[in-house]
Amino acid sequence: MAKVLMKGNEAVAEAAIRAGCRLYFAYPITPQSELIEYMAKMMPTVNGCFLQAESEVAAINMVYGAGGAGKRVMTSSSSPGISLKQEGISYCAGAEIPCVIVNVQRGGPGLGDIQPGQADYFQAVKGGGHGDYQLIVLAPSSVQEFADMASDAFDLADKYRNPVLILADGMLGQMMEPVEFKPKKTDEEIAILGEQHNSWCICPNQDGDKKHHHEINSLEIDPLVLEKHVIKLYEKYAIVEKNEIRYEEYNVSDDNEVLCVSFGTASRIVKSAIDELKGKGKSVGLIRPITLWPYPYEQIKAAIGPKVKKVYVFELNMGQMVDDVKIAVNGKVPVDFFGKVGGIVFTPAEVEEKLEKCF
Amino acid sequence: MEVIAKRPESLTKTPFTYCPGCLHGVAHRLIAETIDELGLVNSMAGVAPVGCSVFAYKFFNFDMAQAAHGRAPAVATGMKRARPDMHVFTYQGDGDLAAIGTAEIIHSANRGEHISVFFVNNAIYGMTGGQMAPTTLPEMKTSTSPYGRKVDDIGYPIRAAELLATLVAPYYIERVSLLSPAEIIKAKKAVLKALTYNKEGRGFTFVEFISTCPTNWGIDPVKSKEWARENMLPFFKPGCYRDKGEGVE
Ligand SMILES: Cc1ncc(C[n+]2csc(CCOP(=O)(O)OP(=O)(O)O)c2C)c(N)n1
Ligand code: SF4
Ligand SMILES: [Mg+2]
Hints:
Chain A is an alpha/beta fold. Helix content of chain A is 41%, strand content 19%. The mean pLDDT of chain A is 97.
């Protein structure tokens, strides 16, 4: 398929439909409105369900219902709306509902602003809602990757019966880049995808031996049973950690004197700065976590070359992922942080300046 | 020997966990019998949010979802949209439906979602131990209205059936009482109507049951019914508020 020029918000929506998503529930909010609008336009053309919910709370609970019925379902929002969804997300994780949630992050806290930010990192990877649970969190850094992650996210959600969050930001949502889409799943393929959940989901029943009584539930009133359930969830998370860590290495070599860690939009700017420094004979590497959970702790540690004096973390927040980088580096070398907030994005020159000082 | 009464196929063998004299069990039974009669047991799915009926997922003998407090109509919306061939109902208490879940019930009714809502109004938060509900009557004492519900301060009880009847989309809205055998027979007819319309894909159907909570009211089951008759029925008047099938608009 030829490449098309598209906004990130539209590309992820198109890719979700191609991946077999036929149910989408959401509430409008900037900077993700192109996503909901694209779904409103396109879902009816594939006999899918588009529903503008009365709130983000309702939307995530519709997701719980539709995902509980075994169908590929998605919701999207931006930071304040994702906060509202947290109770429902916790229920989805507890009841092991496969579903995809997109957060096109903006500046916070509170109403914040509508410019890009990465300040929902903690919310995304450290809980957000109540209880012990994990989301699988994917962080795109280009429109192409944003689109590719839609099908990836559905596959992961189905495979692990777990909610998957795509943590993007207003910059990626709004910017246009060329995208090449994967082929559209046929109705038959979509039906087969749905059938994989028939052993547990809400689905039509039969008499006799095949009669089932499926419960979509996160309630276990007996503490010993709940403990077992949570331990079982964590056994599943351990498998995810073993199998699904994704990251990109950029210019990582034994010559590196600084190793950067940065994700999403911020990592693109860091790459530009690394290229500039390369021209000046200064070697800087970058690890870009693609899965923010499971997190590439070991991979970051392994990328610290013999000459590395410092690990530098760049984020569009006051310093959140840097905590995980510190866990990864574990005192081996100093860890420094540079961030911008309020929807302000650092420039390559600013990043370059910070890095130059390390030499 | 002819069997004239048996456990409905739509109920599991799990014993109810309700207090003695609680009418939740009666409401369950009416719904289950009707599902049997309509032959819907294999296409039925229910949603029960928190409240004393939180364990309803164990009691109904078909696929069930437990939902967050107040959100059952949204969960049911997602379920029904995902599986249009199935028949979906919610089973909600008054705190659930008329306080925390007001947005979800109003908007699912307003969209005319093809679901049935069974609403058990016992004028109190049963599960959490007897706090004031949006349906608690004026001057009624609860653990969070220890001096009685003061309408100047906290307003009047919400009449959910009448509220929803201001919307254009709902197909059927009726309030019934569970306070005597004769009323239960009437209630059964309302359940039958709601689920028949559901089966026929007519739209949003809603049945409110006037119920009791002997435990948290602190009155024995028999007197609870008398109390409800004297105090609840004058405010929450049984009747049909909408029946598009019968031309009641
Ligand atoms: C978000 C949230 N808030 C509060 C609760 C606690 N809670 C559980 S049930 C309930 C009240 C239920 O009352 P009602 O809906 O009237 O049902 P009943 O028990 O009377 O049948 C409350 C407040 C909860 N589970 N979740
Ligand atoms: S607390 Fe009240 S509503 Fe709950 S089971 Fe007991 S009597 Fe019924
Ligand atoms: Mg109640």
